[in-house]
Amino acid sequence: MLDTIKVPLQAQWQTSSLGVRWRAMPARDRMALLGLGMFLGLVLLYLLLWLPAERRLASAREYFETQRSLHAYLQLHEPKARSVQSQPQSQVEPERLQGLVTATAAQQGLAVERIDSDAPGTVQVNLQPAAFPSLLRWFGVLEGQGVRIDEAGMDRNEDGRVTARVSLKVGS
């Protein structure tokens, strides 16, 4: 089977102008060209296979270290979060919830796209794309005011910002 492919290719190589030139070269030049070809092949192998894999590995290690430091941070601050959670929070009046939400969002640099009041003491808020840390600070401010985050949906944008849809309720 292999001979049926090999024989015609070998005959074509023998009759081609490149094959004729190759055979006319001195053996030393042919060896030099073979060595150069192998070197270029190794360089291409490195640039096309090894280097991208090495970069992905470095990126994965960096991501792992970031996640590891985040985990350590969360473990370190867990007791503080639990103590704050158990403390009684101030209570906001249901009628003032919408005003409180818009005011605190503006203080944190967040732009409210839409706000709907479902029932007294409950609002649905859609935010324009914002930085995630600003959004977390806003959640902390709201919880400090006695507003509970009932549901939150977030979509990450290409620029690293998030679009959020949040359901908020008065009470703890």
Protein described:
This protein is α+β, with helices and mostly antiparallel strands. It is 62% helix and 19% strand. It is elongated. The protein starts with a helix and ends with a strand. The mean pLDDT is 88.
Helix and strand pattern: HHHHEEHEE
Strand order of the largest sheet: 1-2-4-3
Which geometry do the CA atoms define?
Answer: elongated
Beta strand count: 4
Strand content: 15-25%
First and last CA, distance: 78 Å
List the helices and strands and how they pair.
Elements: H1 2-15, H2 17-24, H3 27-86, H4 97-107, E1 112-119, E2 122-127, H5 132-144, E3 147-156, E4 162-170
List its traits.
4 strands, 172 residues, alpha+beta, 4-stranded antiparallel beta sheet
Give the structure's gist in a few sentences.
By secondary structure, the chain is an alpha+beta fold. The protein is built from five helices and four strands.
